[in-house]
Specification:
Blueprint: H1 2-23, E1 34-40, E2 43-46, E3 54-55, E4 67-70, E5 75-80, E6 84-88, E7 93-100, E8 111-125, E9 134-138, E10 142-146, E11 149-155, E12 161-167, E13 169-174, E14 180-184, E15 187-191, E16 202-203, H2 206-209, H3 212-234, H4 247-261, H5 264-287, H6 291-308, H7 315-326, H8 339-351, H9 356-379, H10 383-403, H11 411-443, E17 454-457, E18 462-465, E19 477-485, E20 489-490, E21 494-503, E22 508-510, E23 516-520, E24 524-527, E25 530-533, E26 537-547, E27 550-561, E28 566-572, E29 575-578, E30 583-585, E31 587-592, E32 597-599, E33 605-608, E34 614-617, E35 620-623, E36 628-638, E37 641-651
Parallel strand pairs: 8-9, 20-27, 29-37
Antiparallel strand pairs: 1-5, 2-3, 2-4, 4-7, 5-6, 6-8, 7-8, 8-11, 9-10, 10-13, 11-12, 12-15, 13-14, 15-16, 17-18, 19-21, 21-22, 21-25, 23-26, 24-25, 26-27, 28-31, 30-35, 31-32, 33-36, 34-35, 36-37
Helix pairs in contact: 1-4, 4-5, 5-6, 5-7, 7-8, 8-9, 9-10, 9-11, 10-11
Length: 654
């Protein structure tokens, strides 16, 4: 009997041990590859080293150099590492030029380059935050670079390439031409060979937006985002973590035991996955209505990161985890309970930045989040909230526009960041324009049906309705006049382009809304008729419009100047010694990007590090009797840029 009791006890202990050990278990990491997903109809694949096409099979792996071709009434889906998808329409030929997930574990920036030989393809790409990662789609006419968007590309024989953007923004340029055209969501553009064959951006027409192809792919975009979020939570085995009670602490104990017993090589990776799991649990708690408990748990989590990770060698890897966790909050809007957590997470990502490049990149995460939120609010017809959220993004971008050009970072990195900045500014302006137009439509009163005056001839028994249109007699249309205000414009600011038709009798008419406007040069980008300045130089603005029976072209040059911003502040004296009730007066001088040095004492805000040591009145600090050392910091602000300098005052005992 005792043997059975002992055996049962041992069995129970083993069972509990296995259960306890399983609580901290995480699924093995499966590095995704590029595969052919769902196919319909006739789909063929030609491998890079093959001479001809062969029938395709759903699920087969694809590599760089492979080409996928669809026949009539056929389609195919190509999946790139679970980070991007391309949906091929019928009669489409699509070549994978580069397909690199990055790193042995797929945790490095994704590099994908594809070429649309002919046909039509819709691509959706998860946000790529690393500057070295990108998804590039090209045709014989255009090279389109994206870092997280949904867009539609079509190339038919003997026609220009057409680009439609459904979400975010696409950085596009004609093949062999570096001039960028930033196409924001809700807009389209056409591209031929050379800059002269590239049109400006146009609003998506109803025939596109209301088509089955558009509706089907927009629904697939949402499914793609949801699937990626679900895949992330499944990889963290959240179903093994109880939603409440002491068992949550038991799970954490199991995780700690696994960390201690893991090999040195796998321990750090395991810790990072557990960090991600903790954030996913916090997000789940908010969804379940436990917002208060979730906020308290996040506060403890953030304090741990601040005290044990910040300014350490682990900060970079932890920052990657936080960026990945941010995907869990992609659908959280300002009115949602989890919004505060979302913003705190964005702030923490910035705080863990270890250099200027990572800090700017981290700040763009917050900008992208606000723009995505604005777009979601716009789609939900909440135009006021959409406008407010877009303006928050615009303010952040204006600050970045002032800081980035004068930042002390690698020139190549700075150039990449400037393109990201410009793309987001174009998207912001596009959103604000669309929001304003929709708000006007919503406020427009419903007019009664027009009343027509009819004359009836009773003898002939006919009714005649007459409408008369009177056009101003202005003579022949001679030219287009293109102007910009202001011109020149400073980096980070905007200039409004106006197009006027000039008639033979001297009369002019504003036809900006009916004109196609484009820019040639890398000094900025256009959104509608708004030019957004990005870097010093000049851009050639060209407008085309139908005027009378003719199509006319007008142009102008727009100069972009580097803003003269403060880069440093000098305070004098930088140190001093005073006795009881002795004043010390400070002077500050600001150094600007053009080399100017200005006395800015009157515009500087001074503050002491310890009010017990003395009183600060403007630029004069008067000591108290208390001996010691105090820091006096002066802060000067110009055009949104802050520069600081400090002085040390030693107070002697009386």
């Amino acid at each position: 009997m005792k043997r059975w009791i002992l055996a049962a006890f041992v069995f129970f202990v083993v069972l509990v041990g296995v259960w306890f050990w399983s609580l901290g278990a995480l699924p093995a990491i499966v590095v995704p590859v590029t595969t052919l997903g769902e196919i319909t109809g006739e789909v063929q694949v030609k491998a890079a080293d093959a001479a001809s096409f062969s029938s395709a099979t759903s699920g087969e792996e694809l590599h760089a150099g492979d080409t996928v071709k669809t026949g009539p009434t056929s389609s195919a889906l190509i999946q790139f590492f679970n980070k991007a998808e391309s949906k091929l329409d019928e009669n489409t030929e699509y070549t994978i030029l580069e397909s690199n997930n990055g790193g042995a574990n797929g945790d490095e920036p994704m590099q994908v380059r594809v070429r649309l030989e002919a046909g039509r393809v819709w691509s959706r790409v998860l946000q790529i935050f690393d500057l070295d990662g990108q998804f590039v789609a090209e045709t014989s006419d255009v090279v389109a670079t994206v870092r997280g968007t949904s867009f539609d590309l079509e190339k038919l024989p003997s026609e220009k390439t057409k680009l439609w953007v459904a979400e975010s923004v696409v950085d596009a340029s004609s093949a062999g031409n570096e001039n960028a055209v930033f196409v924001a969501e809700g807009y389209s553009a056409e591209f031929g060979k050379g800059s002269s064959s590239t049109t400006g951006t146009q609003r998506l027409g109803n025939s596109i937006v209301e088509s089955d192809w558009f509706h089907t792919n927009r629904a697939a975009d949402k499914t793609f985002q949801d699937d990626n979020r679900n895949r992330l939570t499944e990889s963290l085995a959240l179903n093994r973590v109880p939603k409440a009670g002491l068992l949550k602490d038991v799970v954490r104990s199991s995780e700690l035991l696994r960390e201690r017993l893991a090999s040195q090589a796998s321990r750090e990776a395991l810790k990072l996955r557990y960090l991600l799991r903790k954030l996913a649990i916090i997000r789940r708690d908010v969804l379940d209505g436990n917002t208060g408990a979730a906020l308290r748990e996040y506060t403890r989590f953030e304090n741990t990161i601040q005290t044990k990770v910040k300014n350490t060698a682990d900060a970079k890897q932890v920052r990657k985890v936080l960026v990945e966790a941010h995907r869990l909050f992609i659908d959280v809007l300002p009115e949602d309970p989890a919004y505060r957590l979302k913003q705190q997470l964005e702030d923490l990502i910035v705080q863990l930045s270890d250099d200027s490049e990572s800090e700017f990149t981290a700040r763009f995460i917050g900008v992208k989040a606000r723009l995505d939120e604005s777009a979601q609010l716009f789609d939900g017809n909440n135009f006021s909230a959409a406008k407010s959220t877009a303006r928050v993004a615009k303010t952040a971008l204006e600050n970045l526009s002032r800081e980035l050009p004068v930042a002390k970072i690698d020139a190549g990195v700075q150039s990449k960041l400037m393109r990201v900045l410009l793309a987001y500014r174009v998207r912001t302006e596009a959103l604000l324009q669309r929001i304003q137009e929709q708000k006007k439509k919503a406020q427009m009163p419903v007019l009664p049906s027009p009343i027509f005056v009819t004359s009836t001839d009773m003898l002939l028994s006919t009714t005649t309705t007459t409408t008369t249109t009177t056009e101003p007699q202005t003579g022949a249309c001679l030219a287009l006049r293109v102007s910009a205000s202001p011109n020149p414009v400073s980096v980070g600011t905007e200039s409004v382009i106006t197009v006027q038709a000039v008639y033979a009798d001297g009369h002019t008419a504003d036809i900006t809304k009916d004109s196609s406007i484009k820019t040639i040069g890398m000094s900025g980008a256009l959104q509608g008729n708004v030019f957004i300045a990005a870097q010093a130089g000049s851009s050639h603005i060209e407008a085309t419009a139908s005027c009378g029976q003719e199509t006319l072209t007008g142009s102008m040059d727009l100069s972009v100047n580097t803003p003269n911003l403060p880069v440093s502040l000098e305070i004098s004296p930088s140190q001093g010694t005073r006795s009881f009730l002795q004043p010390i007066s400070f002077q500050t001088r600001a150094r600007y990007t053009n080399g100017d040095i200005r006395d800015v004492t009157k515009e500087t805000a001074f503050q002491s590090s310890d009010e017990r040591m003395g009183i600060q009145n403007g630029s004069i600090f008067t000591t108290y009797q208390l001996p010691g050392v105090v820091q006096i910091t002066g802060t000067f602000t110009d055009q949104g840029v802050n520069v600081r300098a400090s002085a040390t005052v030693t107070i002697q005992a009386p």
